[in-house]
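Supplementary notes for students who missed Thursday's class. We covered one full example, reproduced here. Read the sequence, then the structure, then the short commentary at the end.
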Amino acid sequence: MRRLFPVTDETAAPAGVAGAPGGAARDWSLAELAAAYAYPGPGPGGREPWLRANMVSTLDGAAQHGGRSQPISCAADMRIFGTLRALADVVVVGAETVRQEGYRPARARAEFAAARQAAGQGPAPAIAVVTASLDLDLSLPLFTSPLVPTLILTGAAADPGRVAAAEEAGARVLTAGEGTGVDPARAVRALAGLGHTRLLTEGGPRLLGQFVAAGVLDELCLTVSPMLTAGDAQRIAGGPSVTLPRRFTLKSMLEEDGFLFTRYQRDRRRRNGRP
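Structure (token representation):
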């Protein structure tokens, strides 16, 4: 892996160096990846919630192939995927993605145990499932054997029987909307209220689109896969459109074997269009 941006002495290595131009390609340790993807530190008023998305897309914009993201991923992408999970307090995911991807509980990683303890985090991030219907298979390991209880974000008008069944299965149900659906901004506040301020969403595209439209997404970590799939696969974000396109700034770019690992952030001072 090599860093392409921001430009440093390493990325500006002269021609003739292995992997040049763009510096020497080498294996990055998990500690180096964790430093490269660290969440912002706390401000004067303490730690504010920071919502990061991690997605992968082909060159022609497909976020999936055959309904899953794995075929367009790679080993380095999965290392970053694991690192981002290890840095997060909670992973927010849509119910359809839980069903399609066969989501399992996040696991404790010995390599990150000391860092998580020093950051005041538990052994692994919680998984928070966003669902209006609560149409979930509660016999899955995500609900029967998580290291930390799985969270469910739903609306106030959710079916009481399904809420009770989820709670009986061991999940913690949080209300984050007035109707059956979930309000993205309220979901962020609900999770922050539990102390989960380092937020990571892995989609799917509909959920990410809702976060984008609501103006609550702070960062996008996008892997650009050097593949073409054609077809009618979803983009990384779908659902409602925004009145004006959201502008993000490139913060870093890594490369390995033709895959680009980009990191874009939105200036929090411009949240919801305010200067």
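Commentary. The longest helix spans residues 75-87. The radius of gyration is 19 Å. If anything here is unclear, bring it to office hours.
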